[in-house]
Amino acid sequence: MSNANNDSLTPPSTNELSQVQRRAVSELLRVSPVADDLARRFQEAGFTLALVGGSVRDALLGRLGNDLDFTTDARPDDVLKIVRPWADAVWEVGIAFGTVGCRKSDFEIEITTYRSEAYDRTSRKPEVSYGDSIEQDLVRRDFTVNAMAVALPEKEFIDPHNGLEDLAARVLRTPGTPEDSFSDDPLRMMRAARFAAQLDFEVAPEVVEAMTAMADRLQIVSAERVRDELNKLLLSENPRKGLRLLVDTGMADLVLPELPALRLESDEHHRHKDVYEHSLTVLEQAIDLEENGPDLVLRLAALLHDIGKPRTRRFEKDGRVSFHHHEVVGAKMTKARMTKLKYSNELIKDVSQLVELHLRFHGYGTGEWTDSAVRRYVRDAGPMLERLHKLTRSDCTTRNKRKANALSRAYDGLEERIARLQEQEELDSIRPDLDGNQIMEILAVGPGPQVGKAYKHLLELRLEHGPMGHDAAAAALKEWWAAQEA
């Protein structure tokens, strides 16, 4: 946990509050033209409108984007009548939950009718009922920092649960009791971990206590909602903080049990690296290597790359601990867990492939790989090659600087060799020197399994020896064909 927030539960100073308020005024002035215009339309129709929740929180933090959340006493059908003539586009995807979405200029807007929602003990979806006051709406919000509103167009600040003080103190509390809040929607427990990671906030002790006691309630939440919340946590600036909270409260036992399983027992006779801490460090080091913003595939692979270790751990006679083939076992476990969490087939394939390949580089040793081995490394990684580079480099967490520098130099050398071969041979699209039509013409055969076998043979030759040229490939093909007929 960050040392910056050790005093986060003490009351904020007047100066802290004034800084927060100044940031909010600046942010609200920026969005005022579109927000005030919309609010006047609601007023003319006899309804109220307020900026609410994450939008107010982010305005106070000085990080309000162009996604704006509003709440209103108007029912969804009335909202549609108001926004349709005004917005550039309107969508009704969330209308069953009282939410109408629209776009105006550069702003993405969601307008939700005052509501309350709760789960019963067996339901996977919240039951929605509409409320009549903004106070009633705010008390059902997840955390006090998200239970603030700004009534428009008059800019009246509404904060019945002291969210402003909690925001300045950087602490997450619930508007009512955490037990009531998490009973209403158990996913809020994961959201606490996500906000801790996103905003670098501390979670109040009574909230952590409730999360720990009620972790089992996550079982009624759909896999899709759990997955989406996990993704937001992983894509945050400080996922380690949120993941620790999931593990420490027992929520990870239900969401991602492979993660707490990495906390392998260690004893004085069988020493080995703390795989749990190692995995969190690899995740952070992979994040440091990202070049174009958060990369979910890389982050998932970094977090899961060693999940096969608990199942493959063996105590050797010489006192060492081995994890033979943990990358293969880990890839299968990754596929199984991501399938349960309803990830897309493409994402499952990419992450599993990285987990399976993450140890391949260590066969490179002292840089004695043949060109053939380098070609196969590139071929097997395919479009995941750049991510594999990052994952492999991130997987070095040794405190031995000499060893770390040696590994880094070895990987520098491998990347240089890949670059040279790519320049010479177009490694990104390795294929035989002859295509299927040329194979059939040379062998005087029609389509069939033999053409596939010939193609595979030529691909192996290409990987082993590099480009051969048409004539040499044709001669090699005829030689192979003669051996088949013998």
Automatic annotation (TrEMBL):
UniProt key word Repressor: no
Cofactor dependency: Mg(2+)
Keywords from the UniProt entry: Magnesium, Metal-binding, Nucleotide-binding, Nucleotidyltransferase, Transferase, tRNA processing
EC top class named in words: transferase
InterPro entries: Bact_CCA-adding_enz_type3_sf, HD/PDEase_dom, HD_domain, HDIG_dom, NT_sf, PolA_pol_head_dom, PolyA_RNA-bd, tRNA_adenylyltransferase
HD/PDEase domain mapped to chain residues: 271-485
EC id: 2.7.7.19
SUPFAM superfamilies: Nucleotidyltransferase (SSF81301), Poly A polymerase C-terminal region-like (SSF81891)
Residue runs in coiled coils: none
Any Pfam family matching the protein: PolyA_pol
Gene Ontology MF term list: poly(A) RNA polymerase activity
Protein's recorded name: Poly(A) polymerase
Organism whose genome encodes this protein: Streptomyces syringium
